[in-house]
Amino acid sequence: MSQKVLPDNLQAAIELQAVPVSVSPLKGAKTFQRGQLKRIFRRRATVIGGLIVLLVVITALISLVWTPHPPGEQDLTRSLLPPFWSQGADSSFPLGTDLNGRDLLSRIMVGAQATLFVGIASVLVGGVLGLVLGLVAGYFGGWREAVIMRLVDVQLSLPGVLLAIAILAAVGKGLLNVVLVLGFVSWVQYARIVRGSTLAVKNQEYILGARAIGATDRRIIRRHVFPNILPALMVVATINVSSNILAESALSYLGVGVSLATVTWGGMLNEGKSLFELAWWNAVWPGLAILIVVFGINLLGDGLTETRSNNGNG
Amino acid sequence: MKKLILQRLWQSLLVLFAVSLLSFVLIFLSGDPVATLIPLNARQEDIDNIRHQYNLDQPFFIQYFLFLGKAFTGNMGESFRYHTDALGLVLSHLPNTFLLAIVSLVFSVLVSLPLGILAARFKGRGVDFVASLFALTAISMPSFWLGVILILVFAGALHWFPASGAGGWQNLVLPTLTVSAFSIGLLIRLIRRAVAETLQQQYVTTARSKGLSEGRIAWVHVLRNSAIPVVTVLGLQFGALLGGSAVVETVFAWPGVGWLMVQSIEARDLPVIRAAVLILAIFIVLINLLVDITYSLLDPRIKPGVKA
What we know:
heterodimer, A: mainly alpha, disordered N terminus, B: 12 helices
């Protein structure tokens, strides 16, 4: 007898909590997402941007297992070979070679790895930092909000690149340092968006309902607040990937970014800048690669932004 | 108005305090600062002497307040490289940075204003497509790379403009184009969106139905109301131009503060790096302050202390 009563009670308790807490808002959220997906595919900007990004991702993946030549293979007898259409070109080095005779096509392919890594990892660092601080500020308010928003004001007054150069000049270069510094420099943007969205959903009825049946703050944030601010966060994150890629290339070009042992497009430009009058292709290809990937991501971001704003208050 | 200015002044002071703390900590992030001052085979006695001379044997906060006190009197230390006053060195490079930033900003506005308005007025048509594509390309380009390409074409192949240095107006042309590209792209996108939104407002329809000319509608009704977001971004862009000057100034060896900073980083000349960061930050904070005040002049609805 008693064995049967207990599960029933539990079941009822779970249902009580589940009905207002998860079913109604989450069901709404799902249909909203499904409709959104259709609209995304209808937008040409999103599709073209997405294809460009996909192409770069595939290039980076291929370069993990195969490149036309080993990217670090030096051979001074084939130093500064021109691209394939010029006189004196070697067709097995279609984009030409650098001063040390390394194949530029292979290096561009491998460079996509570090570029994507820096872009995505730094956004994760900044995003998580901004998400946590923004949630705390928006959800709890009070002195926590005051302190965090003052920090936001301080950092917004400082240009990110200047800050990044200064910090990297002090702590030294390296892939991980660049990721951490770019993440640290960009958390404010997420914190502001997250705080704003949290304030907007905080007093919705379903959250009051969840609180009324005794859901903890952690549960409310995880199940109700977070899913609602995720779309806005994704748009900012997408655009931030491209600005962080640009920032990384500038830092590496200045020589305070990623060390030359790791192949990055910014680093290739740094090496190519001293000989661009002699061999222009050394300076042109890496910049073109950056332009293409950043263009693709920005186009994708534009498409996502418009899809969101066409959705009304979504 | 007075309240707003006071509130923003207080906020600016807070920012400057944070910047001073940051620029002070920088020297510690790079490891033991004494190591950069002495030869490798120095005796322990000499090391202790230098430590004492630069107050490095004092507790952290005492050191910070000593630094702050000196900074207030304009003493930012001596350049390791030139053995001259670090602050004076930075200030002597400031006019070049300002010249480039101001010329670029004016050029950006002159190019992006007509293009942005045209794109908004003919939204969805050919002009809009070309302007939008141009803007997107401009903001997707690494600025230093554009600089390198411009040097390659206009200095290398055509010999129209010098590739580097400062001097006559010819020296200013290529750096201005390079610095402006990003701002132009950003401003076209912003102006296009702001103007397109304003064009849909009812007061524009009313103005049209009154029979006002398109030119008058554009100047009196649309531009003034689209100005707020544009002025904000202009201010932020000016700050970004100062902060980002390091990159483009290095490409063209333009002797501004950014160029000086990169040179000092290569030489590990920490007092100059610190002075450059602090001076640039002070100007950026001042500009932000001015933008906020301009803001409330343009839109009297913006009041201090009123939370949205």
